[in-house]
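Section 4.2 – Deliverable D4.2 (structural model, holo form)

The reporting period included a commitment to supply a predicted holo structure for the target in complex with adenosine-5'-triphosphate. Inputs used:
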Amino acid sequence: MQTKTHISARDLTVSYGEQQALNHISIDIPDKKITAIIGPSGCGKTTLLKSFNRLLDLQDGVRVAGQVLVDGENIYDPGVEKTHLRKRMGLLSQRPTVLPMSIYDNVVYGLRIHGVKDKKILDQAVERYLQEANLWSEVKDRLHSSATRLSIGQQQRLCLARGLAVEPEIILGDEPTSALDPVSAEQIEQRFLVLKNQYTIVLVTHILRQAKRLADYVIFLYLGNLIEHGPAEQVLNNPRYAKTQAYIEGKFIEEPTIHKEITLQKERSADYLTSTLLALDELQVDQVLKVVVDSEPTMNEISKAVELKCHKILEVKRIDLLHWEIIIQKQNVNFII
Amino acid sequence: MGKLWGKSFDKRKIEENIFKGLMVFSMLVVLGSLGFILVTVFAKGFKALSWEMLTQGPQGGYYIGKGGGILNAILGSLILGIGATFLAFLFSFPIAFYLNLYLKKKSRLAFLIRFSLDILWGVPSIVYGAFGFTLMLFWGIPASLFAGMLTIALLILPIMTRSIDEVLKMIPLELKEAALSLGSTRWEIATKVILRQASSGILTGVLMAFGRGISDAAAVLFTAGFTDSLPYSLFKPVATLPLSIFFQLGTPFPEVQARGYASALVLTVIVLVLSIVSRLLSKRFTRHIIK
Ligand SMILES: Nc1ncnc2c1ncn2[C@@H]1O[C@H](COP(=O)(O)OP(=O)(O)OP(=O)(O)O)[C@@H](O)[C@H]1O
Ligand SMILES: [Mg+2]
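Output (structure tokens):
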């Protein structure tokens, strides 16, 4: 896939006090595509999304390490103007939150604070964005009544309209259809498919089928670790790693039992490939080997070599700044040869 | 089995009943004292209350003449109370916003500010009076409306700030996030979003502080002074209702004491009307609020 990268995370680590929510995440999110973040509840999806527009800064005890680059610029640099940054990203939060004002005022809130006063422009914007969010027909007769009286699903669409009205470059949606019935959800999904021509869209979703319908690119997180990411086709239909497979098949995600563990340091064990294969030889079929290495090229090489020998790589994980681990399950190689 | 179950159930039921009884009792104590105060003030003050009392200044020095009224104190108290509330608001509003929008929940500075305010809240009002008086001596300011206003403003500042602060603390994080992600600055959030969401709570806090300010005697004793004339200058002494009650009740004459109760009635009614008005207003304000 040859596309421009819009947002990228580099070694992004986020912790809430003691609790580490994201663990050395490095990903590139393509421009003008839909990227879906999937993973079980509590795996850090919302945290990842909020780290993109620096909303995490609001909370106590949150520590962010690493970088997030938007158009190549690190948004965690001290000089970054957060207000501008946030304006470029429309966030639809997991729980729809309307502002304490009328429906009309909600939609034009962003326009007003950015200086639009002309009543005609505002009126047009309200109609246009409510249409885009599929809410216009339901509320057009009560635009000036309080937004808090809307149903949750309507509030969710109002938040979408409000976010679009700011004309962001990026839409960050945290389960944007969670409160909608299938028909409305489908309509919103259609919208996203149109919107992706103009916007980079990052969606968190629990619904795998929604990810299949919408996503060009998928990120799978598990317990704060980036397990797998890549083109939607590949991740959803043909996942590489065991945990992704389990999640996509709706199975319980298990930590593999490690039968043997070796640590390879670049300078000391020059022949790391041999060491790995030797270690595998000592295991029985289906037993699991964990290899800890201290450089990314080494990790890649070992993975490739092991796969060539038809062993199965269950997981590749970055554990900290300097270490990667590869979890390998021994297969019945002789049989294949 | 059945018996055992019944026993433990009985015990729980008794606990529940004891607790219920306690709650009812405490409620009765609160309502009872309120009722008792109102009845006393009404019974003793209503007879002496007259049109004349509400519309004239006192005749005969410091209310002892038994004639005239307490208009000087009513006006004095209202002006002093409103002025002090306004002054206090000018400071407490920004402090409360700073605490909630600029500082994090667990920040040390926020803790320190809240802690100091809580201590200030607990300082007896006579100490504020003495403090104001010391400053006045230092700067050579005589007892005056202005000095009284400043002292009362100081007295109610912690009350107002902390009650606004508590209201702002209740604002959900999601609301701030939603407004921030539309590109608002914190100031815009404060004035356009939070002020609406919290307006009724803020109003209640302000009126509560006003009620406290208008009914305090000790803080104005040395600072605002007392006089028979209606308030006419910021830099002249001013009469206040609490002090007029104090002086009138302190005389040996039953008629003047009755007038003291009438003054107390006036003050009570002012405070009561205020709280009712604040209730009514807050209903209007809560129209758009997220619950
Ligand atoms: N404010 C917080 N303080 C402490 N821990 C937090 C906080 N917010 C999130 N966490 C923890 O961080 C982890 C990731 O949370 P996050 O909200 O990102 O999960 P999620 O993937 O969005 O889950 P869900 O699908 O349920 O929304 C969780 O273990 C959660 O308990
Ligand atoms: Mg979430």
